[in-house]
Write a structure and sequence with these properties.
This protein has no helices and 20 strands. By secondary structure, it is mostly beta strands. It folds into two domains: 87 residues, Immunoglobulin-like, CATH 2.60.40.10; 92 residues, Immunoglobulins (Immunoglobulin-like), CATH 2.60.40.10.
Length: 184
């Protein structure tokens, strides 16, 4: 039952070259401070603002690509470590996909929900993101939907998707507009 710390990216997804993102460290902890690491090297000490600390990346370059994590410290003692968040910076070459949800934005608890990410490209695959989560959902090929069965309150949140091709070079799209799922 000690302190825990989590890390996530806002908005989630691969960052466009020259774009921006925010790395959020969310901590169930008391006083102390949060240190952001990149590829195992200390980057910044962040002040906790309530239960979270944020670090912004703007005008992103390839140098911002890396494995980020947050440590919660009291003095010099590490009390908690987050999972690792992979940040990737790429040029975007594909059109922006469109995310839709069936049967709709608001559903009753226990209902089944289908997310569909649509892009105008014959061979693109897509990733579905939920803001606040480190990992994306399983990879979707162009013809696939992602289904959530028996949704509950914990499935609520801000979803988006991003697509890529896997030919000789990975080519990425921008991240879709977000969709908020509400579970009643």
């Amino acid at each position: 039952g000690g302190p825990t710390i989590s890390i996530f990216q806002k908005p989630p997804g691969v960052i466009q070259l020259g774009g921006s993102t925010t790395i959020c460290c969310s901590c169930q902890c008391d006083n102390g401070h949060v240190v952001l690491y990149k590829n195992g090297h200390q980057l910044h000490t962040l002040e906790l603002n309530g239960s979270s600390a944020e670090f912004s990346i703007s005008n992103a370059t390839q140098q911002d690509t890396g494995a980020y994590s947050c440590h919660y410290l009291d003095g010099d003692t590490v009390l908690a470590r987050s999972d690792t968040l992979e940040i990737l910076v790429q040029e975007f070459h594909l059109p922006e996909p469109v995310l839709s949800v069936l049967p709709g934005h608001e559903v009753a608890a226990g209902a089944d929900v289908v997310f569909r990410c649509t892009i105008v490209h014959p061979k693109a695959g897509c990733l579905l993101y939920l803001e606040g989560q480190v990992k994306s959902f399983p990879f979707l090929s162009k013809e696939q939907d992602y289904s959530l069965f028996h949704v509950r309150k914990g499935d609520e949140g801000r979803y988006s998707c991003q697509c890529f091709t896997r030919d000789a070079l990975f080519k990425w799209s921008a991240v879709s507009k977000t969709l908020d799922l509400v579970v009643r």
